[in-house]
Amino acid sequence: MKSTSYLKTAVLLAGFAACGLSHGADQPKITVDEFRSKLKKDESPLPAGGQLVMSYASVVDKIMPSVVTITSTGKVKGRMDGMPQIPPNMEPFFRRFFGLPDDGDNPFDDQEEQPRRRKGPGSGQQPRQQPKEREERLGLGSGMIITTDGYILTNNHVIKDADKLDVAVDLPGGATKTYQAKVIGHDPLTDVALIKIDATGLPPATIADSAKLRVGDIVLAAGAPMELAHSVTQGIVSALGRSNVGIVGEGRAAGYENFIQTDASINPGNSGGPLVDALGRVVGINTAIFSRSGMNAGIGFAIPVSMALGVVEDLLAHGKVERGFLGVQIRDVDQDMAKDLGLSDQSGAVVMSVGKDSPAGKAGVEVGDVIVAVAGKKVADSGGLRLIVSSNKPGSKIALDIIRDKKKLTVNATLDVLPEEALAGAMPGGQMPRSGGGSSELIAGVTAQDITPELEEKYSIAKGAGGVVVTKVDPNSSAAAVGLTEGDVIQAVNRTPVKNLGEAKAQVNAKDKKQAVFLKVNRKGDSILLVVRD
């Protein structure tokens, strides 16, 4: 029906049903050392120069036998011809929008599972039947064979929610054979997955050292873009170490990214396929594009293969990725922050919060510190800090180089295990504002007063916490905009500890009117830095 085809392109409302392939005891067991011995590697650097290459056919011939096409299938409810199910309460709107009749053929109904609605006696229409689950194709992506016995590297979002994975492998002579794969492990945060098919004698891809890539190196992206298998595109490495690029989703969290950026065309279906260098060696896994239209716009991203293999080894050894946890909330150093903190440049990550009893807290890290290096590695921004810390195992002892009050110092922290709640991105100990009263305005829109036994009980403040308690925050104030809430205990103003309201006001009044106010806040035991600008 014509209107149905319009809906297919116009309606993007429902997500896939949450399913998953079995990860049971029937999976093949392999140690990390055994897995490493199966990989085909060539980590020599590319030549620095060379003659103009007129054809990359030999490169394509080398990688294509290792590229597979992955079709995921799963159970979904009430979907028709790949169209998301429309919630019943939204049907009237879409009927009016597309000029559909109230009775008769209904493109929103699952015609295989649900009869056409009929008028019933008395009360009108019969109740709608609940759509049944049925198996449907969820998507199509790519992958690469990395061992002769069937281990395949791909993206997590390619295999996500699938009950069945069909892997099409090219055979010598042009034939294709399809295998069913099982998931060995997957990591949503980096979008890496390892699957396996029951086969032998497969052609593994040669793996390079992605750390040796340089901006300007020629790369080719292989896979099945737009469901067109055996496709390859060519470009260069546009940038390295991309993070916080706004490609968050499919379970991926910002800050666990270290993308290779390329202008080699990457389109839907390329996901999970290899990005190779001019020698046909894998340097990355194609994973995402940056585009307003959803199609290639010359900005594609790939996961460095060295990073992906590190994730795979953790999955094989532990069944999950174990990441180090420092226990801080951080942000990039922007121009205003650099000026406020008296920094010479905008590198590093500003500590905005220190978790109660966290590794950072135990090491002596304070809010307002700027972390500029971890374990000898320079920190460029907040994403770089997360990546360095998470790449260290729990229990690791790392040195943190920080700038505090324009002075450099080093503290040592022992990392803990990254908890799931740390990925939510919320400031620890956050709470909604509550009604309250007070008698003195500390800064615009913020009323505070000295801590009394009654206020300690009302706001659950630890005895001897010190400072002043916020009793009211104007929701339209700058302080509210940065997250200050009623019940917060301000323990320092502009890096100077305060014991009472008089001392706090003195510090506020002592600053230049053009400067921001730095508030060190204690919230349920966590230390938080809030920067309030008028």
Descriptive keywords:
12 helices, Pdz3 Domain, 534 residues, elongated, 32% strand, disordered N terminus, 6-stranded antiparallel β-barrel, alpha+beta, 31 strands
What does this structure look like?
There is one protein chain. With 534 residues, this protein is α+β, with helices and mostly antiparallel strands. Among the domains are: 324-420, PDZ domain (Pdz3 Domain, Roll); 441-532, PDZ domain (Pdz3 Domain). The chain is 17% helix and 32% strand. The protein is built from twelve helices and 31 strands. Strands 18, 19, 20, 21, 22, 23, 25, 26, 27, 28, 29, 30 and 31 form a 13-stranded antiparallel β-sheet that branches. Strand 7 and strand 8 (176-187) form a beta hairpin. The radius of gyration is 28 Å and the shape is elongated. The termini are far apart. 40% of the residues are buried.
Query: What's the overall average pLDDT, rounded?
Result: 78
Assign the structural class, choosing from mainly alpha, mainly beta, alpha/beta, alpha+beta, or little secondary structure.
alpha+beta
Overall spatial form: elongated
Residue windows where pLDDT falls under 50 for at least 5 positions:
1-20, 79-86, 103-124, 424-439
- Looking at CATH, the homologous superfamily of one domain is PDZ domain
Instruction: Give the termini separation.
Output: 58 Å
Task: Quickly count the helices.
Answer: 12
Helicity level: 10-25%
Q: Major beta sheet, specifics?
A: 13 strands, antiparallel
Radius of gyration: 28 Å
Strand content: 25-35%
Work out the number of β strands.
31
Kindly identify the CATH topology of one domain.
Answer: Pdz3 Domain
What is the CATH-assigned architecture of one domain?
Roll
Broad CATH class of one domain:
Mainly Beta
